[in-house]
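# nightly structure sweep
# worker-07 picked up a monomer target from the shared queue
# config: single-sequence mode, recycle default, output format = structure tokens
# input follows
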Amino acid sequence: MTGTIGILTGGGDCPGLNAAIRAVVRSGIKQGYIVIGIRNGWLGLIENDTVPLTDRSVSGIVSRGGTILGTSRTDPVAYPEGVTKIRRVMESQGIASLVVIGGDGTLGAAHEISSLGIPLVCIPKTIDNDIFGTDRSIGFDTAVSIVTEALDRLHTTAESHHRIMVVEVMGRSAGWIALAAGMAGGADAILVPEVRVSMDRLCHSLKARYEAGKQFSIVVVAEGTRHEDITGTIVPVCDRDECGHEKFVGIGNVLGKELETRLGIETRVTVLGHVQRGGSPTAFDRILATHLGLAATDRIYNGEFGCMVGIQGNRIVSVPLESIVHKPKEIDPGDYIRAGIAAGWTDGSDK
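# output follows
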């Protein structure tokens, strides 16, 4: 035997995680490893909550959403004696190295753990697609497909009732989902955290549509978008999660009310929320997750630790964790302008 690999999934769930787990287990076994699943992210590693993973236990999971291991947003560095407990559990279980699948918060914790001498390799997953060092993260393609389908359905009711439809999608600090799904779903306006758009400009654009005989509009807004010029309010924030992330409360509802007040046009709001995380992964996410899972096992076999495997262009690459953590990956302003041209609310003169 080569040794024992532990694998965990941290942060929010997303489609494609099980495909990555399956790839790590099957490739690990072929290379002579024992693979142990760690339940509920870093918390399971702290509390010694593990389960053996075999070829049979991962059979048929590639099409399932979520994660068979469960997840949590536990920060192992902030947890009392978290790192000491992790070392103790790894030693007792004979775990020589870890595969950590997660988003920005999970990878940030992995970097700190790695700097303390614990061997690990990371796989990026987040529907927000905001992890630096990889073109795509597991879960993003599925989320975009879900939002696009929702926009297709909302178009028909918006057109029938001559309404403005505001669709709030996920995107804490980056508007990747809003931009991609808005383009694919034919949105008439797209609002993202990275680009400041005034309410006056948005209202002028939507009013112009109606004056041109287009009696409905679809507005896609990422949840982290801030509009300080909305009358009397900004997006409210309530509490924070275990990683200190703000829990946003309804930019879609605030925006919808403001548009209806200013334009006098009936406006309805759809908040897609966690439906974007659910269901079976797309073929792209299954394939991406499988490639990244295989690559992570190869890195462990070759003794390459403290890195994340990702995709750049059509190549699977390794990126040192210290070069990616806490670095925002924002949308390209040029892509945003091109989306505006396609939607018809800019002629590109604001490049």
